[in-house]
Design brief:
The complex is a heterodimer of chains A (about 160) and B (about 130). Chain A is an alpha+beta fold and about 160 residues long. The N terminus of chain A is likely disordered. In chain A, β7 and β8 form a beta hairpin. Chain A contains two helices and twelve strands. In chain A, the strands form three sheets. Chain A has a four-stranded antiparallel β-sheet with strand order 2-3-4-5. Chain A has a four-stranded antiparallel β-sheet with strand order 6-7-8-9, with no helix packed on it. A three-stranded antiparallel β-sheet of chain A has the order 10-11-12, with no helix packed on it. Chain B is an all-beta fold and about 130 residues long. Helices cover about 0% and strands about 45% of the residues of chain B. In chain B, a hairpin with a 6-residue loop joins β3 and β4. Chain B is globular. Classes of the chains: A alpha+beta (about 160), B mainly beta (about 130). Chains A and B meet through β1, α2 and β2 of A and β9, β10 and β11 of B. β1 of chain A pairs antiparallel with β11 of chain B, so a sheet runs across the interface.
Chain lengths: ~160, ~130
């Protein structure tokens, strides 16, 4: 093989390696955030923005809980008034400021939609009209619009609710 | 939305009510877990690819679709895209356990910032 051909093959291999490396390295885990997450046990229902991550975590033998992680400190913050011993969280969403959390939870064999305001440490049930079973919730980044997936007579629908 | 028995993501402009086309997502149902960036430039969701769920991000500004490759043993179940498009949280199932992992998208996606936010620079604020 001539020197030029060898260089050509070498460059092609290098380019391919770089290309593959680029594809592989594109999705970079954020380790400083994933580390505390791994300590929470099973976790699900993520709601992410640049400041906060809300999720539901559960450890073996204990009840599932809503967690809110401050991305600046990579640590959970307390959520007084939100997690109740008589309810099971199903889906959670957080706004950009970390002020409002929307939550679907099961309580007394019923699913309910709740808005929690962190600064007030208060939760308020949001009525589903017409009646239905809420399943999954999403909150706009500005916290003003809530989308909730509702089952009505076997039909899945999405309700949009504007929040005051 | 159920279309012909296949769960399909629909993107609707809230102001006009118009349903916007998502041509690249055709024939990759069932779709699930849609998540939009601030201005709707990016739509992240789960699609079916080769019999497995795959997370993808559709860039509506360029029409490109970005597949997010994960280790073979990990299957995404749900996702959440940060509104600025600079990170994504994936709920992954691995050997019966569910766990969340957050990935950076910085350098892969241009930021989709909230309206009214200055990108960078621009000098000092004006003094009265």
């Amino acid at each position: 093989m001539s020197k030029r051909a060898t260089i050509g093959v070498g460059l092609s291999t290098a380019a391919l390696t770089l290309l593959l490396a680029g594809c592989q390295s594109g999705l970079r885990p954020i380790q400083q955030l994933n580390q505390p997450l791994s300590g929470l046990g099973n976790s699900q229902s993520p709601s992410l923005n640049s400041e906060w991550l809300a999720l539901i975590s559960s450890r073996t033998g204990s009840r599932a809980q809503v967690q809110l992680i401050d991305r600046r400190r990579n640590a959970p913050v307390p959520l007084p008034g939100l997690n109740r011993p008589d309810s099971l969280p199903i889906s959670v969403a957080v706004d950009q400021r970390g002020e409002r959390l929307a939550l679907v939870r099961q309580r007394d064999d019923r699913s309910e939609l709740v808005i929690h305001r962190r600064s007030l440490q208060a939760s308020q049930t949001v009525p589903i009209e017409p009646a239905g079973v809420p399943q999954r919730v999403s909150l706009s980044a500005d916290g003003r619009v809530l989308a909730v997936e509702v089952s009505r007579a076997g039909l899945w629908q999405v309700d949009l609710l504007e929040l005051p | 939305m159920d279309r012909g028995g296949r769960t399909t993501v629909i993107l609707q402009d809230r102001r006009s009510g118009r349903v916007l086309p998502l041509r690249q997502l055709r024939n990759r149902q069932p779709h699930s877990s849609p998540s939009l960036s601030w201005n709707g430039r990016y739509l992240a969701l789960l699609v079916l690819q080769g019999g497995r769920r795959q997370a993808v991000i559709e860039d509506r500004a360029t029409g490109q679709q970005l597949p997010l490759f994960l280790p073979a043993a990990q299957e995404p179940q749900q996702l959440s895209l940060a509104p600025d498009g600079q990170s994504i949280a994936l709920e992954l199932i691995n050997g019966g356990s569910r766990r969340l992992q957050v990935f950076s998208l910085a350098g892969m996606l241009e930021p989709d910032r909230a309206p009214g936010l200055r990108e960078s620079g621009g000098g000092s604020p004006l003094q009265p």
